[in-house]
Amino acid sequence: MIRNKKAGLFTGTMIGLTMAISSITHAQEGPIRIAYIEPLSGPFANVGDAGLKHFRFAAEKMNEQGGILGRDIEIVAMDNKQSPSESVSLVQRSVDDGINFVTQGNGSNVAGAIVEAVDRNNRRNDDKVIFLNYAAVDPALTNERCSFYHFRFDANSAIKLEALSNFMKTRDDQIDNIFLINQDYSHGQFISSRMKELVGEKDINAEVVGDVLHPIAQVRDFSPYVSRIQQSGADTVVTGNWGNDLSLLVRAIDSAGLDVNTYTYYGGGLGTPAAVGPRGEDILFQVTEWHADVNVDEGLEEYEQWFVEFKERYPEIDWYYHRIYNQMHMLKNAIEEVGNAEDVDAIAHALEGMEFQSPTGTVTMRAKDHQILQPMYISVMDADAKYDADNSGVGFRTVANIPVEEATDTTSCNMRRP
């Protein structure tokens, strides 16, 4: 039998085209997937697990309301073991699996590697990815390392430190000696350097008497560092530590009976309140975009129901990452504006400059550098708070409201757009 080669070629082409169309149709009808790239093993596994619970809860609540474009949202957990190189591999795996969105937040060194991996992929391939950063706060990520495909939904470290130092200035009659202790990578290094400058710039009537950078996720006993704090005569500690590096630090401070005010970025959750308990009342401060008693202060009953339901679902942790709420809803708005969850460039354009009515007020994704601008709060541990933190019996009370126009900074971003 003589085979018609042209007919065979035509038939093969049609089969391939049909399969491609079928694949595209399936992708557009299936769930909208977000790769969650965080440590799910190792010393920061508790932090990764808490974030995963936040994202999956938000996805579930949004799916109950119809998802995005009628499609469910699916969170795909990927364990990066807190490794930048492993995270780069997981970005590639996400691309290979047809996932258009990746999210991460724990470790600015990891975030920097993801930005580079996403940019490299998007320059070379048609299958593009957007990086949604919910917690990595190194200012460089929205300055010299800014990217069209990277969006940060947390206030960067410069904004947080500006807020903390402004508040400390109002209390400088209670501050004489400041000790800085931070993790030894870009985030902690920035706080170490910038805080010393701010003491002078804001004319805070205090002296920096100690400045320590320690290895990230490697210290099991912080008592030698606490001894240095004690010997320095410090009455105030400033730290950007997170995860076990913060909870172990505050536990060591407490165990030593050290009477110091501690100003933190992340003192309100993920193990830290439980580590210090009622002894942290009036001395453990945090700067955040939200805390549970904000709802009590401002009458946010609907959002209050959201985090109460989360607590009922996961009694061992609290709803802590308000920025995940903002991130998920802003992504939904961008995709629905575009009308297509696969058009990554159009979705990125829809996200930049977006204003969103968050429960705490209007938040804006600044178009120039993709840094979120949002109201902020400084709060202190208080046994009379309505909601406790980490089942510790102690919650947080607002001591300073920072309006969005003050929770901002300048940017040197010179973004390359497609």
Q: Keyphrases for this structure?
A:
single chain; 418 residues; alpha/beta; Rossmann fold; 2 domains; seven-stranded mixed β-sheet; five-stranded parallel β-sheet; 13 helices; 42% helix; signal; Peripla_BP_I
**Order of helix and strand elements from N to C terminus:** HEHEHEHEEHEHEHEHEHEHHHHEEEEE
Tally the helices.
13
Per CATH, which architecture of the largest domain? Answer: 3-Layer(aba) Sandwich
What is the terminal-to-terminal distance?
53 Å
CATH topology of the largest domain: Rossmann fold
Structural class by SSE content: alpha/beta
**Which homologous superfamily in CATH is the superfamily of the largest domain?**
Response regulator
The figure for the number of domains is 2
Query: What topology, given as strand order, has the largest sheet?
Result: 7-6-8-9-10-14-15
Largest β-sheet summary: 7 strands, mixed
Low-pLDDT residue intervals, each spanning 5 or more residues: 13-26
Helix content: 40-55%
* DSSP, total strands: 15
